[in-house]
Description:
The chain has 630 residues and is α/β, with parallel strands linked by helices. It has 28 helices and 17 strands.
Amino acid sequence: MSSLAPPTHRSQPASAEPLHILDEVFGYPHFRGRQQDIVAHVVDGGDALVLMPTGGGKSLCYQVPAIARHRRGRGVAIVVSPLIALMHDQVGALEEVGVHAAFLNSTLSLEEAQHVEREMMSGRLTLLYAAPERITTPRFLAQLDSLHQRGLLSLFAIDEAHCVSQWGHDFRSEYLGLSVLHERFADVPRIALTATADEHTRADIIERLQLQDARVFISSFDRPNIRYLIVEKDNPRAQLLRFVRDEHEGEAGVVYCQSRKKVEETAAWLNDEGLTALPYHAGLDAAVRQRHQDRFLREEGIVMVATIAFGMGIDKPDVRFVAHLDLPKNIESYYQETGRAGRDGEPAEAWMAYGLADVVNQRRMIDDSPAGDEFKRVQRGKLDALLALAETHECRRVRLLDYFGEASRPCGNCDNCLQPPATWDATEAARKALSCIYRFHQHGGGFGPRAFGAGHLIDVLRGKRTDKVAQYHHDQLSTFGIGADLSEQQWRSVLRQLVALGHVVAEGEFNTLGLTDSARTVLRGEVSLQLRVPAETKRGKSAGRKASPRAAPADLDAEAQERYQALKTWRAEVAREHNLPAYVVFHDATLAEMARVAPGSLDELGGISGVGAKKLEAYGSEILRVLGTR
Ligand code: ADP
Ligand code: ZN
């Protein structure tokens, strides 16, 4: 059939009603969370500040109002976006669903840019994406004036609005110039969006963007589909490999490391182990970084091994895991980095391995930084909160959300909820360790670098006769062998806890252990220590998958699996032709649902979540052919 008659309910004149737009254009039956309220407020011309976690669905909060207002003859929405690299895919995704959108940035040729400007100035365009530095140029502002005078400036969306705050880590001075939008176009609604929740940043956004009259929409920061797992470092590479192989074979993920060198080494090693891993850090050529990012976005099953230089604005929805091989700086960073997993709402995992050295390094980085005392105090407090998260035997999510000021109940989807860890009373062990460190300092030996670090301490406690023990006559100490009943791993966990709590410090080039004043409270038995029993968490295949309401590939029967694979092959061809990532064509979940339902008609196909009118028209009959259902 060549002339495709769209199903009747889609052929009515374009409605400006938000829910209708959501269904018709994006193929989604319902708004999520606060989206509906936000959209209604902005469509009516109100200003909004939207705080929503990564993956919460911020884009639709301005895209649906932009479409609605455009359909009411209000012209063009201007989207301020900090990253040129992202605009292409965002605009591509909108064009895929039949929304007329474009971007203006330095990657366009002169003719292309002129064409986009004509489309904008005529009011035909629904959304225009541009970076803040362009928007605040006199030339661009004059163009906005002209649109405004003709009533064709429908709204401003300011994405990643926290970039206006010096408090955050992504500060961009160009964002400061955006206050001009309110000054010049006071009657044009503005919606600012961010995933950064803290009070300070929020206050900065309101003040600097002059959003005092905006309604503030704060969503829950929970990401229920992300499972949090934190393990003690034992052999981190082997632990990582097991995690990826057992749980995420062939899936896309990000592995964060602290240093460039470790990024390179880890990526090379994962490749040797047969995975497809790419390095990404600020020391690589811009062209190499771009290539790796493109491959990560466009190919399937790539593991990106990266420093934190990677990630801002990566809105790939099907990242199935984020792994941390090193401790992040604080909970904000941890939450932002892990939040890049599972934006599509499907089960995803955030995994972190941490150990004594992480705690020592992070403490040291703060101590050695040139910052002022007040700043250091804040940083130490933030690190402590992260360490408490790592050491807790209670629900990780409750801790995380509590940090962001949100009360919640045990989640059932973190390691501690799934396998409540056993704890043991380590008070006595802690006292033994502290008195052993005390003896070192008394007894010392008096020459050479007295590098009595964790390894040596544990040897002495466990009564091992090493060369160093002999050299310093540490077998003569009263503490020699008093801890033979505990394993090395148990001792590491005691020490880590003591460093985490600030009773012990590791100093100098050799991480020599020393006691702080507070160690006395432990020595005197005034503090008790409950530690988790280190257990290498071996779980079954992700249970979260089965709990998923939507059909994940694992739930498909053999025939449906075949259909799913055929659809994926077809999608890959379309994505290549359009020079877009595959998920822009259709999400995995949408393909899986198609494979499961095996629709026999266009009408039925149109009922699947993620299939809007434009995609139905463009791809419907092809899909039915691939499915073999007609
Ligand atoms: P954010 O920008 O907040 O990180 P996005 O706007 O990228 O999140 O949305 C995350 C994912 O959720 C996208 O793949 C989007 O298509 C999907 N999504 C958003 N809102 C809905 C909805 N109401 N129904 C179904 N999927 C949605
Ligand atoms: Zn939990």
